[in-house]
Amino acid sequence: MLQTPATLATPDTLAHTRTRPLHWLATATAMAAVIAAAGLVQPATGTPADTAEPAAKGPQAAAPDAAAVTYPLDCKGAPQAVTATAQGDLDGDGRPETVAAVRCDAGSGTPPHAIYVLTQEPAEGARPRVVATLLDTPQRQSATELTVRDRTVTASLLGYSGPEVPRCCPDKKQLAKWRWSDGKFRQELTDSAARSV
């Protein structure tokens, strides 16, 4: 759309439009007063303050620290190693959970992974704890590409097509997804063709 050109100001009309420090000070003072007044006005709600949701359930809650947990993984005296973590709110309660891929730090070979879900109570000093096992070591799989997105845990699982396959060289890959539904995690697996991975 075409617009008409603006009228050019004459030098004597521009003299009245120059700003001086006093103008800026007055503007800043007025803005500060408006912001302060807006902060004092609270919207009316039908919920009394003492029954409101705890602040810890908000999005500012921190995800549990995977390094602060003792995992139910028997390593026969070898240390445990957390190899991957992902965080997200899996159950919709407003607090993030941590998903951790853990294995024994055996020093050689390819020890299988376990995948655990960790949660932490909002109380001061509460420690994170394991609330679910998504993958256990007897399944003899290694987990890679661990993510949490849209309340779903996703991992690539590497395994073996048979007992004759060397433990160093998994030849089977599955995409695994776990989603919280009806009070438990439901798993979905997509197989890849047996091949060297």
List the defining traits of the structure above.
single chain; 197 residues; mainly beta; four-stranded antiparallel beta sheet; 2 helices; disordered N terminus
Any overview of this molecule?
A hairpin with a 2-residue loop joins strand 5 (142-149) and strand 6. The strands form two sheets. Strands 1-2-3-4 form a four-stranded antiparallel β-sheet, with no helix packed on it. With 197 residues, it is mainly beta. The longest helix is centred in the first third of the chain and has 20 residues, at 21-40. Helix content is 12%, strand content 33%. The chain has two helices and eight strands, in the order H-H-E-E-E-E-E-E-E-E. Mean pLDDT is 78; it is low at 1-16 and 42-59.
What's the structural blueprint in terms of helices and strands?
Elements lengths: L10 H4 L6 H20 L39 E9 L8 E8 L8 E7 L9 E7 L6 E8 L2 E8 L12 E10 L2 E8 L6
Antiparallel strand pairs: 1-2, 2-3, 3-4, 5-6, 6-7, 7-8
